Amino acid sequence: MTTAPPLTLFGSLRWDVVRRVLPPEPGRVLEVGCGQGAVGVRLAAAGHRYTGVELDGASAEVARRRFSDAGLDGEVVHGDAQELDAGAGFDVVCAFEVLEHLEDDAAALASWVELLRPGGLVLVSTPAWQARYGPMDAAVGHHRRYEPVQMRALLTGAGLTDVGGRLYGAPLGYALEAVRNRVAARRLEGDGTTTAERTARSGRLFQPSSAAQGAAVAVATWPFRVAQRALPRSGPALVAWGTR
């Protein structure tokens, strides 16, 4: 049995939502902005044929090593999804905490849709509610946060149908954001880095590195993962999807 890489506290809350939206049958999955591979290894372990793209070279190398350590097949590309061939025919294109980093989010989403087969699924996650934009958002290169209605319009505008979504993260996510904002206000915001550098840094912050830390995260978040399932209209973050 594959031991999956540890998730962050917020990542654990998000994965509990994402895994329930993914198609039940294994298929070709592209993850845009795959970070250090914690989600990618889980997708490959579930039988999906996985490709991940990641702009940050250090994170891409960690992801490759994690696939190797797990004995799983998975391609991790250091680069941009726009370098992939249009019409690649993926069954799922997912991007978790990516759109908010992109100045032209509509153009990026449209390019991802072109990589899907007809009937394929786009699955994204983003921070929610622009009014909650805070020091951590600025410190990690976020251009915006998303209102649910704004996300629905974005997905529909990209030509997707059967658009859906739900908020997640209540109640633990609110506390996690408060802590992150305090850390950013003291240590990160206004540190002189470029937006691209802040975006690259975002995938490395708060990352647990050991199996023991991952187990502790799983135990600590379990009651909150259960609680958020009953609160699909509440939370500081958003998962949304649509079909080509």
Roughly what fraction of the amino acids lie in strands? 15-25%
Number of strands: 7
Overall helicity: 40-55%
Q: Main β-sheet, in a few words?
A: 7 strands, mixed
Task: Describe this entry's structure for a reader.
- This protein has helices at residues 9-21, 38-45, 57-70, 105-113, 135-139, 148-157, 172-188, 195-202, 211-229; strands at residues 28-32, 49-54, 75-78, 90-96, 116-127, 161-168, 237-243.
- It has 244 residues and is an alpha/beta fold.
- The protein has a single domain, classed as Rossmann fold (3-Layer(aba) Sandwich), CATH 3.40.50.
- The longest helix has 19 residues, at 211-229.
- The model has no long low-confidence stretch (mean pLDDT 92).
What would the keywords be for this entry?
single chain; 244 residues; alpha/beta; Rossmann fold; 7-stranded mixed sheet; 9 helices; 7 strands; globular
Question: What is the strand and helix layout of this fold?
Answer:
Blueprint lengths: L8 H13 L6 E5 L5 H8 L3 E6 L2 H14 L4 E4 L11 E7 L8 H9 L2 E12 L7 H5 L8 H10 L3 E8 L3 H17 L6 H8 L8 H19 L7 E7 L1
Parallel strand pairs: 1-2, 1-4, 2-3, 4-5
Antiparallel strand pairs: 5-7, 6-7
